[in-house]
Design goal:
Layout lengths: L31 H19 L4 H10 L4 E5 L5 H6 L1 H4 L4 H10 L6 E6 L4 H15 L12 E5 L5 H8 L4 E7 L10 E7 L10 E7 L6 H18 L10 H7 L13
Parallel strand pairs: 1-3, 2-3, 2-4
Antiparallel strand pairs: 4-5, 5-6
């Protein structure tokens, strides 16, 4: 039976990546085991998109780590509406917006929003460990708004939430669109002077945060560097290039440094 499968000469590279390469062939098609793996990966991606985020469990983890939290929804009433109407996922529910506004006591330096996005699995697995890795890089006097957990959320929702808190920076942690080898990839978006109507070109993005991709420690270092530079330069997006690798070289190969909110 093993003779029925023609191996691919690139097969040795499969140990270095989860990407679907060197699948081999059986006649004119793929081997049965690869077809089954494809079906499993497709099912995992669909589940990641449609599964609801366990907000209570995430809040418990964040509060255990010392973060204050708040829970909001977008204007997309359910998952089907969220997938059909991206514009509604970018807007806070009107009642939740008023509640956040009422809770503001003073302008914040940073507002972190955690959105389920297109993979609640990514958020459930990686959001809390990433914030735990970020803590050593933060200046003790940085004023954070409560961490906002947003369901049925798109990236731009973070700008509206941060604007309500009067925050200088918004940081959105959100589940990215699943791939067939990465159903739990977390994305990070940073915006200086967040407000409704900000464009994608005005944000910085860190992608593929997960143990199999960009590690929590390296992602936290890159995020802290971008936060520090955004505050110092008063900008984000295409005008702010990620040069955190230079900071690593200057530190002798070890990520170091703390977020300093002072220019």
């Amino acid at each position: 039976m093993s003779d029925a499968v023609t191996p691919n000469p690139w097969g040795q590279w499969r140990s270095a990546t989860p990407a679907r390469l060197a699948l081999g062939r059986a006649g004119a098609g793929m081997p049965t085991d690869e077809m089954l793996r494809f079906g499993w990966a497709h099912a995992m991606a669909r589940d990641a998109i449609h599964a609801a985020l366990d907000v209570d469990a995430l809040e418990a983890m964040l509060r255990h780590d010392g973060w204050q939290t708040a829970h909001v929804r977008s204007r997309a009433e359910d998952r089907a509406t969220y997938l059909r109407r991206p514009d509604l996922g970018r807007q806070l529910d009107a009642g939740d917006a008023e509640r956040l506004r009422a809770d503001v006591d003073a302008p914040a330096d940073v507002c972190i929003v955690i959105g389920d996005g297109l993979s609640s699995l990514a958020v459930a697995r990686h959001a809390a460990p990433l914030l735990a890795a970020l803590r050593p890089h933060l200046a003790p006097d940085t004023h954070f708004a409560p961490v906002v957990i947003a369901t049925q959320a798109r990236v731009a929702l973070a700008d509206e939430a941060a604007e309500l808190f009067g925050a200088t920076l918004s940081v959105m942690l959100i589940g990215e669109r699943p791939g067939l080898s990465s159903p739990d990839s977390l994305g990070i978006y940073l915006t200086h002077a967040p407000r409704k109507g900000r464009h994608d070109a005005e944000r910085n993005c860190i992608s593929n945060v997960r143990p199999e991709g960009l590690s929590y420690e390296l992602a936290a270092f890159k995020l802290a560097w971008l936060m520090r530079e955004a505050l110092r330069r008063g900008l984000s997006g295409v005008g702010l290039k990620d040069e955190s690798d230079l900071a690593v070289l200057e530190a002798g190969g070890e990520p170091a440094g703390r977020l300093d909110k002072r220019p």
